[in-house]
Specification:
Layout (H helix, E strand, L loop, with lengths): L1 H17 L12 E8 L3 E4 L5 E2 L2 E2 L5 E10 L13 E8 L9 E2 L3 E3 L4 E3 L3 E11 L14 E9 L5 E10 L4
Parallel strand pairs: 3-12
Antiparallel strand pairs: 1-2, 1-5, 4-5, 5-10, 6-7, 6-8, 6-11, 9-10, 11-12
């Protein structure tokens, strides 16, 4: 009987331990990655040098629309918007005759982070915005190097950052 109790305790401990790593819950070392959706919920992180497309919003403005994958940050399976902070930054390299960098500035968002099949959190439309007066067409940025960076903090204070160097695609 005593051996059975010990075995039961070990099994329960193992089951509880394996369930502790919830990728859709706030954790001590969360991560975030910038990338794109492939299909409806498959995520592909941007690699250095990848080409990105310039998108235009119906209400005006342009920028890169990307997806974010989080692990160890609060994510939910409902469509409820939860308080959190997502701030995107876009830096264009060599924007003047001196090769100075142009920071487009902070673009704060308050998106929902959805838990995808209990494996990761997903923000589907993180916008890295451009100045619409300065960059009014795909030709105005085609081939330019750009750094996308993001800072995310969930409602429990877990925070993570990521950045990637990409290139604007030549769009016909």
């Amino acid at each position: 009987m005593r051996a059975l109790s010990l075995v039961t305790c070990v099994i329960v401990s193992l089951l509880l331990h394996t369930g502790c790593e919830d990728p859709c819950a706030s954790a001590a070392d969360p991560t975030v990655e910038i990338g794109r959706l492939v299909g409806t919920a498959s995520f592909e992180p941007f690699a250095s040098g990848d080409e990105v497309m310039l998108g235009f919003a119906p209400q005006g403005g342009s920028g890169v629309v990307a997806a974010l994958r989080t692990i160890g940050m609060s994510a939910h399976e409902t469509l409820i918007i939860f308080p959190r902070t997502v701030t995107t930054h876009l830096v264009i390299e060599g924007t003047d005759e001196n090769g100075a960098r142009e920071v487009m500035g902070d673009f704060p968002l308050n998106p929902s982070v959805y838990c995808v099949d209990g494996t990761f959190g997903l923000v589907t439309n993180a916008i890295f915005g451009l100045d619409p007066e300065r960059y009014d067409s795909p030709a105005s940025v085609a081939g330019r190097a750009v750094t996308l960076s993001v800072d995310v903090e969930d409602e429990n204070g877990a925070s993570a950052s990521d950045s990637v160097d990409v290139v604007f695609a030549d769009q016909q």
